[in-house]
TrEMBL record, chains A, B:
Protein name: Maleylacetoacetate isomerase
InterPro entries: Glutathione-S-Trfase_C-like, Glutathione-S-Trfase_C_sf, Glutathione_S-Trfase, Glutathione_S-Trfase_N, GST_Zeta, GST_Zeta_C, GST_Zeta_N, Thioredoxin-like_sf
Entry EC no(s): 5.2.1.2
GO molecular function, one term: glutathione transferase activity
UniProt family annotation: Belongs to the GST superfamily. Zeta family.
Cellular compartments per GO CC: cytoplasm
GO BP annotation list: glutathione metabolic process; L-phenylalanine catabolic process
Biological classification of the source: Bacteria, Pseudomonadati, Pseudomonadota, Alphaproteobacteria, Hyphomicrobiales
Amino acid sequence: MGEVVLHTYFRSSTSFRARIALNLKGVSYRPEFHHLRLGKHRDPAYLAVNPQGLVPTLVWSDGMVLAQSLAIIEFLDEVIPEPALLPRDPAGRARVRALSQMIACDIHPVNNLRILNALRSRFGADDAAVTDWFRTWVAETFGPLEQHLANDPQTGRFCHGDTPTMADICLVAQVANNGRFGVDMEPYPVIRRIHAAAMELPAFIAAAPQNQPDAE
Amino acid sequence: MGEVVLHTYFRSSTSFRARIALNLKGVSYRPEFHHLRLGKHRDPAYLAVNPQGLVPTLVWSDGMVLAQSLAIIEFLDEVIPEPALLPRDPAGRARVRALSQMIACDIHPVNNLRILNALRSRFGADDAAVTDWFRTWVAETFGPLEQHLANDPQTGRFCHGDTPTMADICLVAQVANNGRFGVDMEPYPVIRRIHAAAMELPAFIAAAPQNQPDAE
């Protein structure tokens, strides 16, 4: 078996998710850095690995290429069952997946760098308009997410019980992004509490953007 | 056990995904219709069911409320294993999930009704600009998706082998959306072939937007 390689960019929140999962599972990997803001993910050599030119991409020890951060996390959870990143029961798994997808489908894609760039180039959006766009879609989902987490007895120290799951991975990566756009986190006490609990764990700390070798 | 209820809107492609999965699994359900264009998903009664006010929401026979279409599909696949909507092997599952997420994360959210509306209201985008926006993000992902499907020997009659999976569900629902924005499908022969194969199946036909009771 060969080495595990993660194609990553320090500031990419989807790369952050993959790094947390790899750390939680105890998988050591060699990072390959792609500077998204300089367009390095569009290099032909990287497009040969991942034709979408997105990060993260995980190259597993057998050479298999895996794209899409949630698919990567579920794969890691299937091949390395402990510590579990999804509950064992179908209802719990559905809840964790839904919480994850609230962030991974309803917030992250519409606030992604390529979209913010398109707002500037197509519609002349300035910094204020881009920031307002970003905050709008966070608030649209973080409101219901906070309400859900606050009202559901399945919420514990983390989003689902007292150990971190895929939902916490998504939550932490989104909160990190929020910081760059000055999102007011005051209305979200449960999200803040869970974020703080997760950021006490070495696997989350080591995966944080500012702790990556390619951080600026 | 009570009845299964699906909160749905005929034109919502995420509702389309849930309808296909329910049909493939042979689950009969009572649809509750929410007219998104008239803002009916913002009714307080519906927000009490799903605080995000999005469709689909599945209320399972035990009363459990499930949000997010991919989480719903994975839940159905776990509680009703046959016919399988994901392969058995972790590598295959990762591939099907990644193909699904290419559509569910990278295309659908940025072309969703709320985003297109925001482009109009915030930036004065006209019909032509909205259509171009929609087509841009389809092309950005359908190009690599076509390439992946064409080059990977795991592609069969469907995205992964010869039976429909979650990836085909996402593909078919996206192709239906594309039609409303006049996306040129000529560059995507494999996607067109898979779409045609899926739309021969009764489960897909019965789930199609135009075959819903709330279709206009």
